[in-house]
Write a structure and sequence with these properties.
Radius of gyration: 19 Å
Number of helices: 8
Shape: globular
Helix content: 25-40%
Largest sheet: 9 strands, mixed
Length: about 280
């Protein structure tokens, strides 16, 4: 079933009726537009302000769950320590209010990286303008600055080569003008499950937040959508939102057009009725 245009009125009403709320937000393509130079996709003051305001509300837990590495997230979100951060699709986690990063993949085998680097270097040489991004538990080949026809053609050849060579423990993901190789055991769905496991009642029994808003724009975010849907067995409000055209294949229930719509939505989720702006 295709996603429907987001019902803003229903979402805002459910938000204000909830006592516990969880925000699961992708970064690139969701809170910020996709740009030709990934290093230029840094948070604007408006983005940081809305994240600060939402996370300052005691009813809210706000997470940015990104494919970026911990160095990038730690640097650019330093001013909002109340926001939880997940780097490299869940491989590293800095909890809200925390200072240290937890390595969620410290026992993972990384011997595969040399072979993947060899393949990516071969295709980088064949694709002027493409670059390799080496992370701790994944490697990404970006071709957004290559000539489009050459980039598309070589990305298909590169993906076929990777899928033929790599073990079953690895996964080749196609993103927006990029290919990423990562461990199957590390994905955004796993970190969402971990975050949800922190919600317990007074008897240490698992509970689900009253309101979940999960927003992402590409294939790696589908793991988040699945985890959010799977957790919601008590029919509490769960809004999974894909950023992009309604024709895009997704398991999200709703869609908005672009990151500007995401920020506009988050700005509408102001203080609760019994709170003043100064209290946040």
């Amino acid at each position: 079933m295709p996603a429907s245009a987001l019902d803003h009125a229903s979402l805002i009403s459910r938000y204000h009726a909830s006592a516990t709320r969880l925000f699961l937000l992708d970064w690139d393509g969701t809170l910020t537009p996709i740009v030709r130079d990934p290093a230029a996709a840094v948070p604007t003051p408006a983005v940081l302000q809305v994240l600060q305001r939402l996370s300052a509300n005691a009813k809210n837990d706000v997470w940015v769950i990104s494919g970026r590495d911990s160095a990038f997230l730690g640097e650019h979100f330093a001013s909002v320590p109340s926001v939880g951060l997940s780097a490299e699709h869940g491989a590293f986690v800095r909890r809200p209010g925390g200072a240290d990063w937890e390595d969620m993949s410290d026992s993972a085998d990384r011997a595969w990286k040399n072979h993947v680097m060899m393949i990516f270097k071969e295709f980088t040489a064949r694709t002027p303008g493409s670059v390799i991004e080496l992370k701790n538990v994944s490697i990404t080949w970006h071709y957004r600055n290559a000539e489009p026809r050459i980039g598309d053609l070589n990305s298909k050849d590169c993906r076929s080569r990777l899928e033929a060579d790599l073990s079953a423990s690895l996964e080749v993901m196609g993103g927006k003008m990029c290919l990423e190789v990562r461990l199957r055991s590390v994905n955004k769905g796993v970190i969402v499950q971990r975050v949800l496991s922190d919600y317990t009642n007074d008897h240490e029994q698992a509970v689900i937040p009253d309101f979940i808003l999960c927003i992402g724009d590409d294939v790696t975010d589908e793991d988040m959508f699945h985890a959010a849907h799977d957790s919601n067995r008590s029919a509490k409000p769960t809004f999974t939102v894909s950023v992009g055209p309604p024709s895009k294949e997704t398991t999200a229930s709703w869609y908005v057009d672009d990151p500007a719509d995401v920020i506009a939505l988050l700005e509408k989720l102001g203080p609760d009725a019994n709170e003043s702006q100064d209290e946040l």
